[in-house]
Design a protein that fits this description.
The protein has 406 residues and is of the alpha/beta class. Helices cover 36% and strands 16% of the residues. The protein folds into three domains: 172 residues, YbaK/aminoacyl-tRNA synthetase-associated domain (YbaK protein, Alpha-Beta Complex); 133 residues, Rossmann fold (3-Layer(aba) Sandwich); 75 residues. The protein contains 16 helices and 14 strands. Strands 1, 2, 3, 4, 5, 6, 7 and 8 form an eight-stranded mixed beta sheet that branches. A six-stranded parallel beta sheet has the order 11-10-9-12-13-14, with helices on both faces. Bound molecules: 5'-O-(N-(L-cysteinyl)-sulfamoyl)adenosine (5CA). 5'-O-(N-(L-cysteinyl)-sulfamoyl)adenosine (5CA) binds next to helix 3, strand 2 and strand 6.
Length: 406
Amino acid sequence: MCAERGQRLRKDFPRMAHETPRHPSAQRVDRVLRERGLEDRVRELPDSTRTAPEAAAAVGCDVRQIVKSLVFRTARSGAPVLVLASGGHRVDEQWMEREVGEPLVRADPEAVRSLTGFAIGGVPPFGHPVEIPTFIDYDLLEFREVWAAAGHPNAIFHLTSRELLGASRGRAVPVTPQPAPREEVPWATFDCYGTLVDWNSGLHSALESVGGPLAPSERERFFPAFLREEQLLEEAEYRSYREVLAEAARAAAASLRLSWSGAGAERFADSIPDWPIFPGAREGLERLRARGLRLGLLSNMDRDLLEATIERHDLPIDAAVSATDVRSYKPLPAHWIRFLKREAVLPATVWHLSSSAHYDLEPARRLGFRTGYVVRAPGTGRESSIADAIVPDLGQWAAKWVPPVR
Ligand code: 5CA
C-alpha cells in the first residue's frame, strides 16, 4: 500500500462519552501522554489492535505506520533495550550489534511486563517505570504520523514522528541490514530558503508585485504573520508548498487587514527560482565542495521549484530532498531520514547548516547530525545554544573546516 493512502488516517472512531479511556492501563498511558502535552490521543477500539496488521486495519493506516514497542536484552550483559520498530519490520538482532555494541535477544513476557509495566500487545513506546535505552526504526520516521499501543490490546494512540522522537528520546537507526556506505565521503546538508536564498526579500517583492507597494509598517508585520500561518499549514495534512505559500500569504494579509485582497497569491511560487541568493552563498558552497565535502539540500519546497532554484543560481549540489519527495515538512524528521538512507551515511558524519532553530537545527541535532547556525536575519536566540558551530560566513567556515582523519 502506498504511503499516501496510509497517511489518511481515521481519527473519527466512535468517541467515548467520558473524557478518559475506559480501561485502567489505557488510562495510565493517557496520563503519561497528557504530561507530555499530547492531549486526547488514545482511541479504544471494538476490534483488537494486538498485532501491527490488526492495528493498521482498525485505524485504516499503512502497517508501516504502526509502532511496535519491542523489548530486548543485550546478548552478553543482559541490559534492557527498547526497539520501536515499524509495523512491517522484523528487527535483525545481529545487525543491531552495529548500533548497540552487542547483539540483541528477545525479552520474555514476564521481563516485558516488569520492565515496561505493560503486557505484550499493549506496550507503549515510552512512559515506563524506568527509562529504557531506546532505538527508533528509520522507516517509522519517514511518516508524518504514526500509531502506537496505548497500554491495552484494544487501545492505540496517534502522534507525529517528531513527537515520537522527542517523547521517547530514542536514537534513530535502521533496524534491518543496510547497504554499506558507498565511500567515506563527508557531507554538508543545507536548508535552502532563508539560509541560501534571501526568502524575506523574495517574498516581499512577490507580494508587492501583485498587491502594490506596502507601507513600511505593513512590511514589518507581514513576514512574522506569514511565518505563523505557514507553520500551521505545514503541521496539518500534507499539501504542496505552492498551496501553503498562497494560503499563508492570504491568511497573513487577512489577519493584518492589509489592503491587498490576496488576489494573485497562487502565482507567488512561480517567482521563487528568481528570488535572490545571499551574497557569497554560492561561492561558500563552491569552497566547501573544493575542500572535499559533498553538498545536499533538504528543503520544504516543491521538487520542481527546488530544482529550478538550483539551476537558476547554478548551485553546486550533489543531492536534494524536497517536501514533494517525503510528503511532509521539516521539522518532521523525514527529510533527514530519506537523505541518510539514500546516501547510506551516518548522521554523525554530516553537518546540517541552517538559519532556523525550529525547522532545522533542533530536529537535525535530535537525529545525531552536527549542526551549524548560519547567521542571517535576527534569530530567536536559541540558535547559538543548539548549534555545534556558528557560521557567520560560509566561505570562512569552508576555509576552517577540517576534513575527518581517515
Ligand atoms: N498493539 C500492537 C500494535 S500497536 C502491539 O503492541 N504490537 S507490538 O508489536 O508492539 O507487540 C507485540 C509484539 O510482541 C509482537 O511483535 C511479538 O513479536 C512480540 N511478542 C509476542 N509474544 C512474545 C513473547 N512470548 N515473547 C516476546 N515477545 C513476544
